[in-house]
Amino acid sequence: AQSVTQLGSHVSVSEGALVLLRCNYSSSVPPYLFWYVQYPNQGLQLLLKYTTGATLVKGINGFEAEFKKSETSFHLTKPSAHMSDAAEYFCAVNPRNFNKFYFGSGTKLNVKP
Amino acid sequence: GAVVSQHPSWVICKSGTSVKIECRSLDFQATTMFWYRQFPKQSLMLMATSNEGSKATYEQGVEKDKFLINHASLTLSTLTVTSAHPEDSSFYICSARSRDANTGELFFGEGSRLTVL
Q1: What 3-state class would DSSP assign to B81?
Q2: What is the pLDDT of residues A30-53, one digit of tens each?
Q3: Interface residue ranges in chain A relative to chain B, Cβ cutoff 8 Å
Q4: Distance (Å, rounded) from C-alpha A112 to C-alpha A16?
């Protein structure tokens, strides 16, 4: 069975500080991996994705994530947080079976001035 | 990128009435669309998967007679909440997968906030 674990339902950082949002998955084969961002009362917007190739992927708004097969992780980072980054972030996994898509429980990022 | 549009964004209705939410893929054809429900401060809960021209597949615990899903074309899926009650109040989000996509990426609508009085 697939599962996606996001450690920390709430993360708070100061503006300009490093952002690190954690995501671990369980899968028998390397899945497709995604990070989505959700602003209040809005749908989800794709930040970045890993499918194949380079394990460090860059996304929009300065975010990047690294796929580590040995750790079954896909942590999201940004070197310097901006106030506009405050939102909820969801890690998602597609086990290369197009009929299923699994979401983590979400991490709410708070950015302090 | 691909655009998915949901309508309405906000809807308030009286208990006992039915509400229809539309989900459209604007610039691509979607053979599969997904409907999610999101409770406050929680993740997305998959309600059902709809495939164009066939019956939707509902997740366990989701009442198919209450949440009617129709996927009549490659660009439109609808969710109808029948005989709505206050406990149906929630944020409903649709997503779609492009027929041409090979990476499993989902494109999401903006969501529809349903409030049942």
Answers
A1: strand
A2: 788 999 999 988 888 999 999 888
A3: 32, 34, 36, 41-46, 49, 51, 90, 92, 94, 96, 98-99, 101, 103-106, 108
A4: 9
